[in-house]
Amino acid sequence: MSFKSLTKSIYKQAFLRFSPITIGLCLISLFVFLTGNNTFFEKILSHYSISWQNTSFLISLFMFFALATILFTQIISFIKIEKWISILIVLVTATSAYYMDTYGVIIDDIMIHNMISTDTLEVMGLMSTEFVIRIIFLGIIPSILILKYFPKPLGYASEIKSRLVIIAMLIISMTVIVLTSYDKYEHFWREQRLLRFYANPTYPVYSTFKYVKQVIQADEAVTPKITVADGVKSSSTKKNLYIFVVGETARADRFSLNGYSRETNPLLSKEKMISFSNVKSCATSTSESLPCMFSILGADDYRRDKARVLENALDVLKKYGVKVLWRDNNSDSKGVALRVKYEDFRTPTMNPKCDAECRDVGMLGGLDEFIEENKQSDILIVLHQLGNHGPEYYRRYTSEYKKFQPVCLDGNLENCSKQEIDNGYDNAILYTDYFLSETIQSLKKHSQAFNTGMIYVSDHGESLGENGVYLHAAPVKSAPKEQTHVPAVLWIGEHSKHDISQFEKYKNSQLSHDVIFCSLLAAYDIETKVCPIGIN
Prior knowledge:
Blueprint (H helix, E strand, L loop, with lengths): L2 H14 L3 H16 L2 H10 L4 H25 L5 H22 L5 H9 L2 H7 L2 H21 L6 H25 L1 H10 L10 H20 L9 E3 L5 E9 L25 E8 L5 H8 L4 H4 L2 H5 L4 H7 L3 E6 L12 E4 L22 H7 L5 E6 L33 H27 L5 E9 L4 E2 L5 E2 L9 H4 E8 L18 E2 L3 H8 L2 E3 L8
Parallel strand pairs: 2-6, 2-7, 3-11, 4-5, 4-6
Antiparallel strand pairs: 1-12, 3-10, 7-10, 8-9
């Protein structure tokens, strides 16, 4: 028997084992896929025109996402409540499709929060005849049919077996589809990542789960924390405005401010500022280093479970009246910003600077309005970069910053030369230079009204093939210096209470993330027993 005949026979036998519920979920999945993805299809066709060269790939892509929708539905439709989950999926798909098709929005967790927060009058304003007709025909009527005709389960064991069989078949089928056009799919996932935001119902449902998770975390956020820094805050007629930029995967030795032979800081070098050349990170991964940076514990004593019940630097600043805003273009704050204002800039809903990826510079949008609204208070703005997140360094910058060529275009760095890896990485540093320069320019506009300053520190470094090691997250005690030696720069605006020359003596001192907690408190004139000495 040939492989083709054998495969066909296996699929036929497997199909006969499907339960009515499994088949019903497949039909519902195809219905929502076909009726709820007009915007998704349009976005794909805007990037891949219908031509002889693209036809086979477009058909393949259509089949892949159809199967992905079926797989998604099979996985989340928990046994015994499949009927109600199916109805929910149909209603979510119909509603999401209307808003995506009509307003061009993305149904992410931010949009879901906006929907829930919208008052009755605003909801009524969004209602239209088209909306009602669409929801009736693509949401309510299908839901009634599901409620009336949804098949009864055969039995727990039979349903489990049927579900596992189809999930396995779907995974195999999707794998085969990808492998037949691997190069094109690799390009699609690499260059068109934002398209996934328009896949309906997968992304809206995912965003709903994400929003629920955030609500649960918000409950944790109000949990009282152990006080670590009671003290006194000095009053001042001139308020403080500082931006703290948390860098991602940047190495100190790749900043030309620190003596690197390549000009990777052409814009920062024009500013009157200090680059601290000898700073060590708390850890070698974002999940550990980020909360450690804002903790009183320091690298030697830091433990995640211990830090979780203590106030961090942002908690203390908020307690003393500082308006804190955290904007994130990375994964998240790793628990640091649970009790302060948090904004996610990883989607076009918030970030105005999105192309193949959402850019760090987009986090600067709207800051003037936030500052104006809080001008009677001290303000701290934290910007969490995507920065040099690897291994695809070439994705972290726009075309204007392709200064060093050629670059590695392979996610597997071992397939690239050291020079190609360095070029892509250095271009990303060059983009960070631009981002930090733009941050400084935005602060200069407020130098008369506030004491202003920008602090930039990377969370950890990166190995770029030295001694055959790549990326980061090595055990901190044995980690190579490339993963722990991080850049840190300080800029202070004119007319501020401090002068940049005051910090010159620390330029080459041995420093670490441990100094951040007390430095932030001192910047806002907060003196405590744990941080008794201010900046001088």
